Amino acid sequence: MNNRIKSAITGVHGYVPEFRLTNAELEKMVDTSDEWITTRTGISERRILQGDGLGTSKMAIEAVNGLLAKTNTDPKDVELIICATVTPDYTFPATANIIADAVGAVNSFSFDINAACSGFIYSLITASQFIESGRYKKIIVIGADKMSSIIDYTDRTTCVIFGDGAGAVLLEPAQDENCIEDHILKSDGSGCKFLHKKAGGSKYPSTIRNFLEKEHFVYQDGPHVFKFAVVNMAEVSFEIMRRNGLSADDVTWLVPHQANKRIIDATASRMGLDEAKVMVNIHNYGNTTAGTIPLCLWDYESKLKKGDKLIISAFGGGFTWGAIYLRWAY
To answer: Are residues 249 and 145 in the same domain?
Structure first.
């Protein structure tokens, strides 16, 4: 008899800012058009966090408070908080520390994970290891990014893509076979030159020069990133199906990172999935980086049923990518 402890998602909640930056508004800011954006990305609008002194933690705190309320969880019972983000409030302390303090999770320890757009799945699997150890019972995993803080709104290749948002899940020991079953996580640091934020780290500390040269904003070589993402996100999603003996009929939902509608479509095609089985909300939020997957789960929560078989898949800067196979627990 297998008595190994496994982990399960037992709740999800999200938060997006009220302000909508539409394609029509972007047409006034850069040389672009609604048709150009929607054809290449599938995005119609994205949410932007406005207000002085508001960082990624603001959105994450809203998501976590909502999660605690809907799952009737006492914050004092939370033992660990992991926040996936590339836009932390500060270099240090970790944004997760700030979130834990704000929500009253006084008995938890907390830390951030930076794996770009794959950050949420990296964090979810990291958290699952703590559950499987048998020592921890309640962990909150957050994916949150204020991408507007590192985007150049005169660069039409990046400003049309990204938005702000946060999502959080509660992870607990599985009560039955509905749990996180398998994962594949990968990375390739040679992708750094194609997608990065050059200035602000220890190699290129912030200076007046690199500020004026806009090196503190996201740089993306779109064609190279797109090609690598299409191949690897699709292949890792197919591979996790194959090694778990799943057919397209077996998979209830694909939960893909919302980077680009064409990448999502390519992944679904490689898996042999009908588009009706694919969670998509990129048209409403754009690419919220670590936030996209929990925001998808939040948006589609009412459609999820206990026992549904989900493949969660992501690709991000680094390069980082991976997939998770789980059965929905509620």
So the answer is: no
